[in-house]
Design brief:
The protein has 312 residues and is α+β, with helices and mostly antiparallel strands. Among the domains are: 63 residues, no CATH class; 109 residues, Band 7 domain (Tetrahydropterin Synthase, Chain A, 2-Layer Sandwich), CATH 3.30.479.30. It contains eight helices and nine strands. The strands form three sheets. Strands 6, 7, 8 and 9 form a four-stranded antiparallel beta sheet that branches. Strands 3-2-5 form a three-stranded antiparallel beta sheet, with no helix packed on it. Strand 7 and strand 8 form a beta hairpin. Helix 3 crosses helix 5. The longest helix has 71 residues. It is rod-shaped and about 185 Å long. About 3% of the residues have low confidence. One of its GO terms (biological process) is proteolysis. It is found in: Membrane.
Length: 312
């Protein structure tokens, strides 16, 4: 038997064992690398604009990151939660209050607020929902107190409304209560967005409002009629004064004209008295004689002689 047909079993098994151990080591190394990468990436977090990252260790807050960028936490023992850093709007529940004049009304508010100190907020309110609940309680209490000092008409009337300063007072007082209890939040604005009446009171109030508006309209009409009569009286007075003045001036002009005409007539007639006498006689005929006129005159009167054609 030739030597090349003889197989060394020890040599083959030893070489194969060496290659298997190498693969096992490579596999273990790869697993460790992957585990480290997973461990690193699962403990990296990103802080974004407008948010707080709260790092807790065994339930206790150990750090708060609010600077945008990448940050790390300790694996297994630390957890990360997020709180909003931007301003938030909260719709306060509709509530019923009594006004100074003992009328009931429904008030609907909203509030703009933000978290200023996450540690205080978590320590005293625990959650955002609890913080909003406490804020709503304070708002309702102060709104009820403030509106209880005003009459109903002062609240709903645009002319008498003091809502601007009222909203500012409510905001200031709510912030004082929140600061005293160290909730770590600030209310930037509280607004009354709607005032309404309970359903059982609406009809009576609407009826009263209609009556008041009708009374006001009648008052305006009366004032308008009085002003109209005053203007008409002043206008009539002015017209009479202008007419009297015009008539006076017309009479003066007419008198001056008649005087001038008489002067001209006198100058003209004085140049021929006989012609003037004839002219006056003829003028009298126009006024005294018509188709039905009967004149009885002595036959020798100058008037009769002119009528009969005797001019000498």
């Amino acid at each position: 038997m030739s030597d090349h047909n003889v197989i060394d079993i020890n040599e083959r098994s030893g070489g194969g064992g060496m290659n298997g151990r190498t693969y096992i080591k490579l596999g273990i190394f790869a697993v460790i690398i992957i585990a480290l990468l997973i461990l690193i990436f699962t403990n990296i977090f990103v802080v974004k604009e407008g948010e707080y990252k709260v790092i807790r260790q065994f339930g206790e807050v150990v750090r708060i990151d609010d600077t945008p960028g990448i940050s790390f936490k300790v694996p297994f023992v630390q957890t990360v939660t997020t709180l909003p850093k931007y301003q938030m709007a909260y719709d306060v529940s509709e509530a019923e209050i009594n006004t100074k004049d003992k009328k009931r009304m429904l008030i609907d508010n909203y509030a703009i607020w933000r978290i200023d100190d996450p540690k205080k907020m978590i320590s005293n309110a625990r959650t955002v929902e609890n913080a909003e609940t406490r804020m709503e309680e304070f708002i309702y209490s102060i709104v009820r107190t403030e509106l209880g000092q005003l009459n109903y008409d002062e609240i709903i009337s645009d002319e008498k409304s003091s809502r601007g300063s009222l909203n500012d007072r409510i905001t200031e007082q709510v912030n004082e209560l929140l600061a005293n209890d160290k909730y770590g939040i600030t209310v930037t604005d509280v607004r009354i967005k709607r005032t309404d009446l309970p359903e059982e009171n609406e009809q009576s109030v609407y009826t009263r409002m209609i009556s008041e508006r009708q009374s006001k309209a009648q008052e305006y009409l009366s004032i308008g009629d009085a002003e109209k009569n005053r203007i008409e009286a002043e206008t009539d007075k002015t017209v009479r004064e202008l007419l009297a003045k015009a008539n006076s001036e017309a009479e003066m002009i007419r008198a001056e004209g008649e005087a001038e005409a008489a002067k001209i007539y006198n100058e003209a007639f004085s140049k021929d008295p006989e012609f003037y006498s004839l002219y006056r006689t003829l003028e009298s005929y126009k006024k005294t004689i018509n188709d039905e006129t009967v004149i009885v005159l002595p036959s020798n009167s100058p008037y009769a002689r002119l009528l009969m054609g005797y001019t000498k």
